[in-house]
Design brief:
alpha+beta; Diaminopimelate Epimerase, Chain A, domain 1; 3 domains; eight-stranded mixed β-barrel; two-stranded antiparallel sheet; 16 helices; 19 strands; elongated; disordered N terminus; Phenazine_PhzF-like
């Protein structure tokens, strides 16, 4: 007699908020992705299934009187099978009843083997698991993204940035192609940092090792990279603000601070206000949400189709960035810079350590009405060009600015957080105060609160952000 084992099409919810595929804490704004475990995964369990099946068939043969010696091979429980399964002196079971019970027992054991295998799978490193079980194409079939306006509290203003949340690393070429597709001043790519490479269950850590690791590893650390449509950049303020807003609003970040590992070193972003509703929703979700692994849903599940996306409003974030110092240009460079501004007279001209030119003009009206000469800017040795002036009285701002960077494919950046790493100390020195209010006078416009700490060499940028769009990248594996 052959026993058939039910091997369902396995589906596991991939949570973008966690390096491990852990479906019990699905965030949020972004839907969890459901991947079907490949046949290769089932084949890894075939030996266990074969042993179970052979053992169970042996029990059936004993019951049928075909091979008494198989009782020994059948293992523990075979003797009870041979006496009809009777514990007392009751009537013996029929062969049909015994087979049915045996089949149910086998299926329970098969389900346990499968559950244990999935438990081991979700505890493994996602990158290793994706390669072992050939899931990379599924993981990248759909990439969540959001478009967020930074340094503004309303849509269609400030500086828009696309933020893509990646389950695994992609090539630089792929990242650049995606940024070109969005065609925004910056596209940010976020990936949860795998601070802990999980060991095989055979080599489990001691409780002391686990405790020490928990104390040193932050759960809110991410790798962050920024791309214009043409190049990767070392630092971007508005796309960092947008990334932090996505993490805080969606609940992906569980604390009040996130840490970004970037080409400019470690950057921090901290909640200021606007995320209180998110925290309440998190508590409610944790109290009511069931573990998807215990009750897996298929893609046809009504609950999955109607799962609500969490609404995201306006949030305020403070960024902790490195201070950018500056030095004065010589007269020859100042003349070239003036020509790039259409011959406007400059009160001061210099260059920042990151390679941007910084020019002061007489009033905010000159900043607003300035006509940039982009061919001249392309001939400058620096990266981009900042023009600034003190703000008008009663305007609510201390200074105004604009930023141009045609070399990176950005004729004019709507609001430039990184430029304020130099503008902050520049105006703090002139105005004699460390807390400043800035306005970037582009067509879209944006507001930044700047706090300068020269002793620590840091500039703190505070601004609002608002989500205006969320979606999914499709068919990008072909790139």
């Amino acid at each position: 007699m052959e026993l058939s084992l039910r091997l369902p099409s396995l589906q596991v919810a991939v949570t973008p908020a966690h390096v491990s595929i852990r479906s019990s804490t699905v965030p949020l704004l972004l839907q969890s992705r459901r991947v079907t475990l490949s046949n290769d995964f089932l084949l890894h369990q075939s030996e266990a299934f074969s042993q179970l099946k052979a053992s169970s068939c042996a029990k059936v043969r004993v019951k049928s009187g075909e091979s008494p010696s198989a009782a020994v091979e059948g293992g523990e429980g075979s003797a009870s099978a041979s006496n009809g399964g009777s514990d007392g002196g009751g009537a013996p079971e029929s062969e049909e009843e015994h087979s049915q019970k045996l089949h149910e027992d086998v299926q329970k054991k098969a389900d346990k083997i499968l559950k244990d295998a999935i438990d081991n799978f979700i505890q493994s490193d996602i990158e290793e698991a994706s390669k072992k079980y050939d899931m990379e194409e599924q993981l990248f079939a759909e990439i969540d993204f959001a478009q967020i306006n930074a340094f503004t509290d309303r849509p269609f203003a400030g500086n828009p940035a696309a933020v893509c949340y990646l389950p695994l690393k992609r090539s630089d070429q792929w990242l650049q192609l995606v940024a070109r597709e969005f065609n925004l001043s910056e596209t940010a790519f976020l990936m949860k940092r795998n601070m802990r490479k999980k060991r095989s269950p055979v080599f489990k850590k001691t409780p002391e090792e686990e405790l020490a690791e928990e104390k040193t590893v932050s759960i809110d650390e991410f790798d962050l990279r920024w791309f214009t449509p043409k190049v990767e950049v070392d630092l971007c303020g508005h796309a960092t603000l947008a990334s932090a807003h996505l993490l805080f609003s969606s609940g992906i970040a569980e604390g009040d601070t996130v840490i970004f590992h970037t080409r400019s070193g470690v950057l921090k972003a901290k909640k200021v206000s606007g995320y209180e509703k998110t925290e309440i929703a998190d508590k409610e979700a944790k109290g009511s949400k069931n573990d998807d692994l215990e009750d897996p849903k298929t893609d046809d599940s009504e609950d999955l189709k109607t799962e609500k996306r969490r609404p995201i409003g306006v949030g305020v974030v403070e960024l902790d960035f490195p201070l950018d110092s500056y030095t004065k240009c010589d007269d020859a460079e100042a003349e070239v810079l003036s020509a790039a501004f259409g011959g406007v007279q400059l009160l001061w001209a210099g260059k920042t350590t990151v390679g941007d030119y910084l020019a002061e003009v007489s009033c905010s009206k000159e900043v607003e009405q300035l006509q940039p000469q982009f061919p001249c800017m392309l001939n400058l040795s620096g990266r981009g060009v900042i023009v600034t002036a003190s703000a008008e009285k009663n305007s609510g701002s201390d200074f105004v600015s604009r930023y141009f960077c045609p070399k990176a494919g950005i004729m004019e950046d709507p609001v430039t957080g990184s430029a304020h790493c130099a503008l902050g100390p520049f105006w703090a020195e002139r105005l004699g105060k460390s807390l400043l209010k800035a306005y970037q006078a582009s067509e879209r416009g944006g507001h930044i609160e700047v706090r300068v700490d020269r002793n620590e060499g840091r500039v703190y940028l505070q601004g609002s952000a608002v989500l205006v769009m969320a979606g999914v990248l499709l068919n990008t594996m072909r790139a």
